[in-house]
Each structure stands twice: as C-alpha cells, then as structure tokens.
Amino acid sequence: MARTLPQHAQTVIIGGGSIGCNTAYHLTKLGMKDVVVLERDQLTSGTTWHAAGLVVAGLLKSEAECEIYTHGRDLYANLEQETGLPTGFRDVGYLQIASNPERVHEMRRLAPFMRRKGINIHEVSPQEAAELFPIGDLSDVHAGFYIPEDGRVNPVDVTMSLAKGARMGGAQIFEGVIVAEILAKNGTATGVKTADGQTITAENVVICGGMWSRQLGAKAGINLPLQAAEHYYLITENVPGLSRDLPVLEDPSTYTYYREEVGGLMLGLFEPGAAPWKLDGIPEDFSFGEIDPDWDRVTPHLEKAYSRVPSTLDIGVRKLFCGPESFTPDLAPLVGETPELRNCFVACGMNSLGILNGAGTGKVLAHWIVDGIPPVDVTGINVNRFTRHEATRAFRRDRGPELLGKMFGQHYHNEGYETARDLKRSVLHDRLAASGAFFVDGHGWEMPDWFAPTPDQAKIENYSWHRQNWFDWHAEEHRAAREDVIIMDMSTMSKFNVEGPSALALMSRLSCNDVDVAVGRLVYTAWVNEQGGFEADLTVTRLAQDKFMVVVGENSHGHTLMHMKRHIQDGEVVVITDLTPAITQINIHGPKARHLMEKVSSADLSNAAFPFMTWQDIDVGYWVIKAFRVTFVGELGWELQVPSYAAVQVYDLLKEAGKEFGLRDAGMQTLNSLRLEKAYRDFGLDVDNTDNPIEAGLGFAVKLDKSGGFIGRDALAAIKGKGVPSTRMLQFLLKDPEPLLYGNELIYLNGQEVGYLQIGGYGHSLGGAVGIGFVELGEPLTSTIVHDGGWQIDVAGTRIDAVASLRPLFDPTMDKIKS
C-alpha cells in the first residue's frame, strides 16, 4: 500500500544517497524545515552502500575544492556527537607517493597551496613513507606526501547519521517512492509526480539521483551528461599483522588506492580503459546491486596493483567487487540550478567521490537554494557549463573509458582528453592543421594550442612541468605578436546577438559599465550578482539602437546565455540569438596589423578614422565583415567577425598578404602569455563569482553613477566606499627567468604569506614567468606597499624573488594598443 506523501514542501529532494541526505541536512541547518527526501528504494541503495568511504584530499587545485573537502572531513569527524549515530570516521592518515621526479615536482607545487587552505599535507622521505605503509614495496618512491588527519568512514553509517540529522532539523524522508516526473510550468519547476500518481508541489526540486539523474533529467528536458562505469576493488583475506590504523595509500603509478578492510587489504582500481555500464539507461530496479566482474579485462590492472604490495600475492582473495559509479565528461560534478528549469537544482556526477565531497557539495547547494548565490567558486562545477552533445550515447560511450584513469593518473598542466574529440571544429581546422597546429580540447572545441614548424612535428614528446618541446615555437609566436603580426582563429569565442525593444534595458541592467553608447562603440564590462561577485567579464558592442553583440569566452557560453535569459523581466521583449556557429572570429594583432589590413581592405584604418574600442563594416577581399578594434593581447589589431562560409577565403587572403610582414599563426599558449603580460583578467580562470571588480582592479569599468544603476551596484559601491581595499589583484614577474608559473603558487610579502596566484604563464617580452593573483593584507594595500615590498613566489618549495605591480608591466600606458 502506497504511503501518503505531503501535498507540498519547500524543497523536494530526489535521491536518498550521500548527496541527497547531505543536501537535506544542510538545508535544515540553514533553517529550511519543510524538506522532503524521496528515495526510490532504501537509503544508500544506489552506489553509496558500496563506496570505499575514503575521506582523503588528493591533489586539490582550487579554493572551492579545498573548502568542499575540509567541510566534509570536519563534519564527518564530529557528526556522531550531534546525531548519536556512528559514522565510522577514523583518521588513519593518507599517504600519496611519488615514484618519479615529475610527480614530486607537481606535489611540491600544490602542497603549499593546500596547506594555506587548512590541509595539513607535508612531504616525507621515502624511508618515512615506507614506515607509514610497511606492507608495501616502496623501493622506487622518490617522496611521499602525508596528511595525518585524513582517513575513512563507513558510507552507510555516515549517510544514516546525516539522514537522522536532517530529520532532527525537520526534514521528512520517504523510502520506496519513485519519482516518475518533474512537474513544471512556464519554465519553472513546480513539484514532482511519483510512480503511484501522487503529486507534491514545491518551490524547489533537487535532483540528487546519482547515476539515474541523467535519464530523470532528460524527461524534463534537462541536460545532465554523466555515465556509469564499472568500478572495481579487491579485498584480500586476512593479512597477518595488518594494522587497522594503516594509512590510506594512493599510488598514481599503479592507478590504485590501498586501505585496510576488516583485517584484509583493499585494492581499489581507477584503471585506464574502464568499461561504461548501461549506456542506454540504468535499470530502475537496480538496488544494492553488483556487476559480474570481467576478470579478463581487469586482471592486468590487478597485477599492476599487486606490484605495490607483492607480499599479499599469496594471500587469498575474499572478494573482487564490481559496482557502478557515475562520471562526468570533465570529472567535475554537476551542481546548481539547471538552465532549462528555474528552481530545479542538481547535485550529481560525483565521479566516485560522493562520500568525500558529499557534505561540502550539499552545503554549497543548500546555500545556493536558500541565499540565491553559491558561497564558493562554482565556475568549474556549474551544471550550465555543458552542451547537449556531451550527453549523447556516442559521446558517453567514447569518453567513458578514459575517465577513471584520469582520476588517478599523473597529471600535467596542459594534458587534455584524447577521446570523444573533433566535435566542435572551426571551418579553418584543416588550414590550421596544415600550418602545424597542435590541438587541445576546450569545452568541446578543437583549439590550436601552439604551432610547430611542420604538421608532423605537432606533437608533445614528453609531458612535463618544465619546458616542453613546443616552448620555443610558442616563444616565436609571442615575439611575432610583439614585433610583427599574428593571426589567430578565435572561433571558440561565444557570440550572441541581443536585440529587441528591451535589449538596452537588459544590457544596462546586467552591465557594470555604461553600455548606452553610440552605435559603433564597444564596451568592456563585468556582470556581477547582487553581492558584487563576478558573473562574467566580456564585451558588449552596440550594433544598432536596439541591437547588441555580446562576446565572451568559450568557457562561459552556457552561463552567459542562462544569465541573460534569467534577467529578462516580465513584459520585456528581447531576442537572444547564439551566433557562435555562424561566425568565425579571426584576430589580427601586432605592430604591423594595420599594414596587413590595409593591403586587403579599402577601408580607412587609420587611428583617427577607426579608433580603439569601435567597430565598422569593412571590406576584406570579396567580403564585407564586421571588424572590432579591440584586443586581449595588448597589441594594435582587429577581431574580424567573419561569416563562417567566407572564413577560409578570408584566412587564405590574410595569410598570403601577410607573408611580407612576417605573419605567423598563434595559439592559445601565446594568447595566454600575451594577455598575462598585460594583466588582462579572464572570468573562470583568474576571477570567479566570489571575486569583485573593485578588488580585481577593474574599477575603471564600473560606473556607479550611471543612469538606472545595475545589478550589484550597491554592493560594489559599499566596497569602493571603504577606500583602498586590503585585498587587491596584482601582477607578478619572476626575477629569475628559469622557473615557470601555472597558478596556485603562494605569494610572500616581506617573508609573510599573503595570497596565491590564480594563473601563470611565461612573459617572453618581459623576460620571465608572469602571473596574477589576489593579495590579502590586514591593512589597505597601497601602491607604496606594492612598489617597495619584498615580494617572492613559492615555486615547488623554493621562493623566487618577484616584481609586483598594480598596473600592467607591459605597455602600461596602452601606447601600442592605441597606435
């Protein structure tokens, strides 16, 4: 007999695993009592019950990752005191080992950043590592990195304890209730309908359905790209003398983690070449289920795993377990409000880290629901970052096998995915390949990263944290931009037409800068939320009185589109058209850019006739195209918005005409190095929703007194009203030309740790590595402190002297851009 459900709730959560119970628990902690959790079978019956229960940091590369992890570790360690139910938390410690110099270097780069964020990770010698994990053969280990406070929990116990905590806060949890449909009206979620026909209306619906989330979301038109895969661990029979307090060991060289399990040893695999499971949909009746192990496929990986603990080869096998876990295309969770439905939130796709990250994710989502704004940087986990092709069966089939190995293998700053490639290709792709382009994947786009002298040289010989084989070729591209002229295919840039009677009202409401300018003008601006945190940084170009073009980076495509749509008010008429597939953006930049453009166009391209931050329709060969005089590299030049059907002809014309001016193709590595020399900001990389334009040094683009104001105006006015801020974004240049910067390196002022770099690159024109990052002081961060301070940057444990600046170190007066 069906149980009678409430007819209404403030929030209905679909799914009673780690994520659903964590979200319910944290909502009640924020004072939301009317919460209903609907579990299709029993709590933990999906994948939570067979999780390994690891509570270990791994390598964390962002503030958000650190905050999500530390909140979970601290909560699980203390939850039993609140609820009276055990969690099984045991701080046995966590040891990561490095068996080659590159891995040591990578961990030395990240360990100081993690310590800054409250994670007590420190390096130990090979001998100390062997003493911590005496059961293993660590003879090839170069160094270990140890966190004594990390450990493990019992997944079922911790979920039940969370469920009790949620009930104590007023939540109701119902088992055996299948949600058949998410109800919606006028683009807003209004509740759910169960398989037995009952309806619960709600102000918020939250999908926490684990590996079932994709197919449930699809019924409501919601795009949730995730795919279940086979996930293995082996448990040996009892190992004589094995301590229950054996630390968890992670070894990227064997793609395995090791921990004690009821007197035996657990070997958990994250093997390359994993097997996707149930591509056509997860069975609704799969509960507490296992998958028959594929011994033939997994045996070679087990042999490698055993190589780290050869003493256990003669110990019998108690269990080879195979169960499903769901993974996303980029190994980051799907969190936030869905673009397709207002008031429909999601937290799923945890990539086998549902216990580890469940508490922190539940807290983030709870604040997002209650406060309307997430409390941490969510640019990397926001559900709106994906397009629909990543959820297709073919994409999931091809990308799935690569994902598990990526979780545990050794990582490099420029290493991308090899599967499910060649999806979004510029019409210039073949031309670029013939010019020697090495392509990387960027949000589904094939992007030229750098150019080799010949196509057969366009490969990475060895990945490294030091200079790779392409470094000098990239340097030549960089110098060409500063001395001659470069051509760049920037088709990946997202381009939107925004038009209609209310277009100006929408653009003005969103933009911190004044976009009510003359037709023909471009405006650089930030978009912020009510708290003043970034939602985008972009250009808004006025094409006509009631028509604008918004151009933003490819990493912000979905978020920017969603942000615009969500801020069209009742009664307003605005049409937003995504022009990205229709327009190929070709950038021409460098001191000789005008000479090149004058050779292919009859337009007057002089500084007087075509000033900086304006656009015109000009002829280029046979074609009339929009030319925007704007730059993200700090050089004279134009961004040409070319209809894609004409792009090949325009590119060929420019390449031929540019020979006498030393024209070179340039890729994303050069774009990054050029823009970092100019200290240009990039939303999603350098600044995020927890940062604001005032502290980021973009106050020049914030017009607090503009007519009508803008979203976040009062918050930014309050920040600016405090005077010189104590937190400011600075540019840094290493005085030693040898080290490289990538981001996360700690910043020191007069010996005191004061911040970290958001991103880094090599400034070939400045003669050293450059980076930008926020510095936090307990006093106003004045220009005198910046100029006179003793600055250093920590690179893999070594502090390097640096120059700091509030202004760009390259061409601070913008003479080159405006020439």
Automatic annotation (TrEMBL):
Outline the extent of the GCVT N-terminal domain.
Answer: 428-706
Q: Which GO terms describe its cellular component?
A: cytoplasm
Record GO terms (molecular function) = oxidoreductase activity
Annotated FAD dependent oxidoreductase central domain ranges read 371-426
Q: Which SUPFAM superfamilies match?
A: Aminomethyltransferase beta-barrel domain, FAD-linked reductases, C-terminal domain, FAD/NAD(P)-binding domain, Folate-binding domain
The UniProt record lists the Aminomethyltransferase C-terminal domain at: 728-811
Which keywords describe this protein according to UniProt?
A: Oxidoreductase
Start and end of every FAD dependent oxidoreductase domain? 12-368
Family the entry assigns: Belongs to the GcvT family.
Q: What is this protein called?
A: FAD-dependent oxidoreductase
